Amino acid sequence: DAKTTQPPSMDCAEGRAANLPCNHSTISGNEYVYWYRQIHSQGPQYIIHGLKNNETNEMASLIITEDRKSSTLILPHATLRDTAVYYCIVRVRAGEYGNKLVFGAGTILRVKS
Amino acid sequence: DAGVIQSPRHEVTEMGQEVTLRCKPISGHDYLFWYRQTMMRGLELLIYFNNNVPIDDSGMPEDRFSAKMPNASFSTLKIQPSEPRDSAVYFCASSFGGSGYGYTFGSGTRLTVV
Which residues of A fall within a CB distance of 8 Å from B60? Predict the structure, then answer.
């Protein structure tokens, strides 16, 4: 099962870009990388996912290295409301038909004014 | 859609009592997941269903825990008997198609067993 490694915490100034790294050196060729975040006392929220190309949506950008062993989530203009725990996840195979998301410890991002 | 709805939001119960947590997934979603979150262990997947059928219950801690999904719009997680170490926030999530994106989580049930 592919596992991910993230720094336990990061700080970012409000209005600046937040770059959250993730290592997934054992990722398989057809496994996607998913990012979720959890704002205090709420359920996790989907942000973005990708396979090998860079991806962008209204929330963030995802940069995946060419060897796919690491990725970076970018919040282009962080706000105080982006303070949360950010999870980088590679889906785990579960049984013959299933896949499941296994959450690690994540990175606590603190956006400061 | 109102999203994934969990009830109750908070539950305080005495050790040994039965606890039932409820979840209504998003209409049309065919996967439903139960997670538990504690400070010590983080977010743990307990069990998940596909089309109302349990697919993987390897995360269910022990026989005191059971989960059912009698139809596409309702699931329960039952703890009997409850113990103080079961105190946690329990999240339900649903998704369509089994991919890893688009999981929608409920607001959670904070369970305290005293």
Answer: none
